[in-house]
Amino acid sequence: MKIQKKIYALAFIALLSLVLAACANEPDNNESGSNDSTEGTKGGDLTITTPADAVSLDPAASNDTPSSDVQRNIFETLVTQDENMEVQPLLAEEWEQIDDTTWEFKLRQDVKFHDGSDFNADVVKANIDRTLDPEVGSPRAIMYNMISEVEVVDDYTVHFKTEYPFAALPAHLAHPGGVMISKDQIDEDYAAMEAGEDAGSVISVNPQGTGPFKYDEWQPGQYVRLVNNEDYWGEPALLDSVTFKVVTEDLTRIAELETGDSQVANSLSPSDVAQIEGSDHLSVQAQDSLALSYLGFNMEKEPFDDVRVRQAIAKAIDKEEILSGIYDNVGIPAHTPIAPSVFGYSEDVKDHEYNVEEAKELLAEAGLEDGFSTTIWTNDDRQRIDTATNIQAQLKEIGINAEVRTVEWGSMLEQTANGEHDMFVFGWTTVTGDADNGLYPLFHSDNLGEAGNRTFTVDPELDDLLDRARQEGDPDKRLELYRQTQELLAEITPMVYIHHQQYLLGVDDSVKGLTQSPTQLLNLKEVSIEQ
């Protein structure tokens, strides 16, 4: 069997409580599940087929995986995460918490951006300030809104001042939203904004980072190509170029992999594993994830503003049927929004059990004993479409007639952010490995729409728990607050948790050193192609 697995560490629960010592977040260049440790020949051009195009190459203007996969090879963060989601140095060499609300970071002194400008403390301040700037309107601002000030101590030392104690700060700085952009380009982008252009108009068309690859070309809807940064401050990447090619149909991605038109198919449906494994030159690479797939409700719309309707639907959906019938049991059923390896997960929280009769009773209590008609939205992904179709069939048993609508990825992001949907099949990855990132963006009322709360959940008690949990320094108290949060969410039922998936890649055997993090992002710096 060619599937190779790298199980992410269950010991991560202790990580963020111990982070005071100086360890840091977000997938490193040496992460999970390599398909082969044997080195190939230096050089070569890697083509990765992907189901969706990047939304933007400006990190402050996007919050999606296709964009992040490209950006993380152009830009770098102060700190990164290894395969166990433990924080490690990157652009910062060391860090420590010097008081309850102050973190000090010491920066590397040998780093230049692709445009030749220097990386220093002024750059760090400019990047965080820009992400938090309301005029820029970054959906990733919620990752850093606890930062009250970035203080430049000297050229290579910065202090992050937070409004309250926040133990997860290093993990948040490893998030894709924490990447560093050339200050010269940030200044140019602001000048363009003053001239009437949109924020990111300069950065997205020619992004300048410090990463192992440089931007080369973007043909929207077709591909993004990066080339080797020969002047990289560390050990350079092995590949000459990487092309992220947009191929929306997963069967077409497999066909291109079989013919050699691409070397990596990202992602792969569980139902296609046998076909890949039957090939003499292809393998399946698997990685456990921190991701959640879910059916969300728009709680601003009738009848989903009635908790009895939401709970009825939750009880009417057999998750095991979806997991076995669509995902071939690749992954595990979800009972809370966060995966078991995420700090803050509680195994004590009880989810709604599958019970069609109880579902019908709840609908009757809500005055909808005859059911109603609605829609289920999802993007153009085969597994999500199949999930939506399965849910459609299951809901018919309780009298709900649901039309499945497939929406292009960019439109899906925009329209669900605007609250145009009824129900939707979607996903979220807790990229920091901490419950704050898995709960605060999705459910706090400050984050309605684009920032993550697409269910439009508004609940004062829930907001209070989330605020207290992110401000609590004691890890045991944080765990208790997150347990209470997950219990309250089970009662509110803003979504039906479906499963925590396992990421699958189709990979040509000539590709060596490829790994994928538990956050789904690909690690390409150590990749080579065996000639």
Automatic annotation (TrEMBL):
Alphabetical keyword list: Signal, Transport
SUPFAM superfamilies reported in the protein's UniProt record: Periplasmic binding protein-like II
Gene3D superfamilies from the UniProt entry: Dipeptide-binding Protein, Domain 1, Dipeptide-binding Protein, Domain 3, Periplasmic binding protein-like II
Signal peptide region: 1-24
CDD domains (alphabetical): PBP2_Ylib_like (cd08499)
Chain positions covered by the region annotation Disordered: 28-50
Record-annotated Solute-binding protein family domain positions: 86-447
Compositional bias per record (Polar residues), positions renumbered to this chain: 30-40
Keyword Membrane listed: no
Family according to the record: Belongs to the bacterial solute-binding protein 5 family.
Protein's name according to its UniProt entry: Glutathione ABC transporter substrate-binding protein
